[in-house]
Design goal:
With about 700 residues, the chain is an alpha+beta fold. Among the domains are: about 170 residues, Cyclophilin-like (Cyclophilin, Beta Barrel), CATH 2.40.100; about 150 residues, Alpha Horseshoe (Leucine-rich Repeat Variant); about 110 residues, no CATH class. The protein is built from 34 helices and nine strands. A nine-stranded antiparallel beta sheet has the order 8-3-4-6-5-7-2-1-9. Helix 12 runs parallel beside helix 15 and helix 15 packs parallel to helix 17.
């Protein structure tokens, strides 16, 4: 769907627009966040044309004027230029940024450290360590530690561990050590240092110290500390650190942890902890109906996120005996008001030969007068990918052609799963029938069905039907950035097909496509040609984007509110105009024009994010023809941080997400532009299909 550009006078957007979503007299006053709440102190961006010129160059990805601004006699300009380079991530900026680590102004040093961390250039590690040893400003220390975690080697890790820092820097140091570990840079001393802080009186330090153990796959590296991790897990009931420690116990795969995980899954007071405990417990239950009993009990958890996680774990266990179908079918039938939990159990029922239960549930769901019904129906369609009967195959074939994209996309994915189960024994007629289904989904040029169908076209059994030609023809009818996701999948699939036309096609994309597509095509060419190639995909003019209207931004003010009304209550989001001005301007305009009204939250991942904003398609594949730039900020992803969804750097549109809990692995990778200041409990309760009944903007001056 092509976006209509609506040109309205500025006064029409900023004054007298209550009917469109401007102004919110019923919203209780919420005091603006203090200066520095978003990781960076205010620099009066909205009142200074010289700073705005730096940001305009950042948006246009013009490196030269930003680099020139690094030499300004005004420290505020130097800091803003360094901050801008954190989003631009230009390798040519490393040397001048290193010079700014000795700047007399701590604001400049902090922004320079942030930008260096964003480059991921390992050459910056030693200068960063040296800068940290002499740094006296805590804000700059935080950014230096973070940058080292993103770029440093084992040598710099040892330096970070041994350095004398103020006590208030310990959480930042622990997170930096975790960032090292996330890149595979760690040591016995690093693990021991983190373990020693798992039960610190400082809650921020406990959580940061636990983070790596929940994400690290280097289990053997820290297995010796398992007793201390277990002790901390048992002691930290209800504590956020327990989320990560639960996942660590799951990685250990020690049967002796079963009782403590099972009990904690049922009685920890924090639903976020119970979600992660259920995830950690799931591998222990595989192949054991007895061990599965705590997960069955967790289906009745009052929190749908927890119950869904338990249901997903049960449904993923292909070893459960068919007799469990009776239990699951009874649960589904007796819980009509918990469709998301029931829907998560359906894959197990389909696999156990009860596709009839799945299709009956699907029919009942589609008869409901409920905007969430298509999202619930999608669960049933996905489940039918586990079935083997002809009736469910016919149903999937029909649903794949549905006009409702929320249903069509999952139906195509389910057909792919069905094909995976029969391909090794399929005769020519069956192979052709499946190919025709996927070809029809591809030709539809719908973002959901085409994205789903493109990868399967590279299946070698489909070679006689010339899928490469179809891929290239369909690709030519699509347009970036609107169709970026299916185009990426088509380029990848084309690279796997050897029909003589793929190299020329990939070369064309690598040299002239959208930046995201250029990178994908270059990778495909490297894999396609034995000797590899070196396609220069740099130096091209970046795609067009939305320019910042500074008069509009000034009227919004530095801390406007985005107020989302839902059936469950109100979510109030404070936006950081100074940190992410392009993003905030775009979302404010979208809300004022009423585009977010009636739009569902299409994606909810328990204890991770709730995502919405797709007013183009409402299934998560929609977005504008002109993308926003990534605006990476110094705001950390904590509970209630609001960020922008993307399909790669500089592909943001209007889809946003709200975090359920801290997610440090997103820091500096997704635009963080605000935070929930009221209604986090509402955001936590939202489920797929819940809609924004009305979105409004409250200017900073009206708060």
């Amino acid at each position: 769907m092509r976006r209509l550009v609506i040109a309205l006078p500025l006064a029409a957007l900023l004054g007298g627009c209550t009917a469109l979503g401007w102004g919110a007299p019923s919203v209780p006053p919420v005091a603006p966040s203090p200066d520095g709440a978003y990781g960076r102190p205010s620099d009066d961006l909205l009142g200074r044309a010289d700073l705005q010129a730096v940001v305009d160059a950042q948006v246009l990805r013009r490196t030269a004027p930003v680099l020139a601004a690094l030499g300004s006699p005004d420290a505020v300009v130097r800091a803003r230029a360094a901050f801008a380079l954190g989003s631009m991530q230009d390798e040519g900026a490393v040397a001048p940024l290193l010079g700014l680590l000795s700047d007399p102004d701590p604001r400049v040093r902090a922004d320079a450290a942030f930008a260096l961390g964003q480059t991921a250039d390992s050459a910056a590690a030693l200068p960063l360590v040296n800068a940290l040893t002499r740094e006296s400003d805590n804000a700059a220390r935080v950014e230096l530690l973070d940058a080292l975690g993103k770029t440093g080697s084992r040598t710099s890790l040892d330096a970070v561990l041994g350095m004398h820092l103020p006590a208030e820097m310990e959480p930042a140091r622990a997170l930096a050590v975790a960032r090292y570990g996330g890149r595979g840079v760690t040591s016995p001393a690093a693990y021991a240092w983190l373990v020693a802080r798992l039960q610190s009186p400082d809650g921020r330090l406990r959580e940061a110290a636990a983070f790596l153990f929940g994400r690290s796959r280097d289990v053997d590296g820290w297995r010796a500390h398992a007793p201390a991790i277990r002790t901390a897990f048992m002691a930290l009931r209800g504590d956020p650190a327990r989320m990560h420690l639960a996942l660590a116990l799951g990685r250990l795969r020690d049967p002796n942890d079963l009782p403590r995980l099972a009990q904690a899954m049922l009685d920890d007071p924090d639903w976020r902890n119970r979600v992660n405990i259920a995830r950690a417990y799931a591998p222990f239950a595989v192949g054991s109906p007895t061990n599965s009993e705590p997960l069955v009990m967790a289906l009745d958890d009052a929190n749908d996120h927890v119950a869904r996680t338990a249901a997903d774990a049960l449904a993923a266990d292909a070893t459960l005996p068919g007799a469990m179908a009776v239990t699951f079918a009874a649960w589904v039938e007796s819980h009509p008001r918990r469709p998301l939990v029931a829907g998560s159990l359906l894959p197990a029922l389909a696999r156990m030969g009860r596709a009839d239960v799945v299709m009956a549930w699907l029919d009942r769901t589609l008869r409901r007068d409920d905007p969430a019904a298509p999202y619930h129906a999608a669960l049933a369609l996905t489940a039918l990918g586990n079935a083997t009967d002809d009736a469910s195959l016919a149903r999937l074939t029909a649903e794949a052609g549905q006009a409702d994209v929320v249903r069509a996309g999952p139906a195509v994915e389910a057909l792919k799963a069905r094909w995976g189960g029969v391909r090794t024994t399929a005769d020519a007629a069956t192979t052709r029938r499946y190919y025709d289904q996927f070809a029809a989904a591809l030709r539809r040029r719908d973002l959901a069905t085409t994205t789903a169908a493109a990868p399967i076209m590279a299946d070698s059994l489909f070679g006689p039907y010339n899928p490469g030609v179809l891929l290239r023809e369909t690709y030519a009818q699509m347009e970036a950035p609107r169709d970026i996701e299916p185009m990426v999948e088509m380029v990848r699939a084309a690279g796997q097909i050897r029909d003589g036309g793929e190299v020329e096609f990939l070369m064309g994309v690598a040299l002239a496509g959208h930046p995201v597509l250029r990178d994908v095509a270059a990778d495909a060419l490297d894999e396609r040609l034995i000797e590899g190639i070196d396609v220069d995909t740099t130096g091209r003019v970046p795609p067009t984007t939305v320019l910042i209207e500074w008069d509009y931004a000034r009227r919004l003010g530095p801390r406007p509110l985005l107020v989302l009304e839902t059936r469950l209550g109100r979510v109030v989001i404070e936006m950081d105009t100074e940190g992410a001005p392009q993003t905030v301007m775009k979302l404010a305009k979208t809300a004022v024009l009423g585009h977010f009204n009636g739009v569902p939250f299409h994606r909810v991942v328990p204890n991770f994010v709730v995502q919405g904003g797709d007013y183009f398609r409402r299934d998560g594949y929609g977005g504008p023809d002109v993308n926003l730039r990534s605006e990476f900020t110094r705001q950390r992803y904590g509970t209630g941080t609001v960020g922008m969804a993307s399909a790669g750097k500089d592909t943001e549109g209007v889809q946003y997400f709200v975090t359920h809990s801290p997610t440090p692995h997103l820091d500096g990778r997704y635009t963080a532009f605000g935070r929930v200041v009221a209604g986090q409990d509402v955001a936590d309760a939202l489920q797929p299909g819940d809609v924004v009944t009305r979105a409004r903007i409250v200017r900073t001056s009206e708060r």
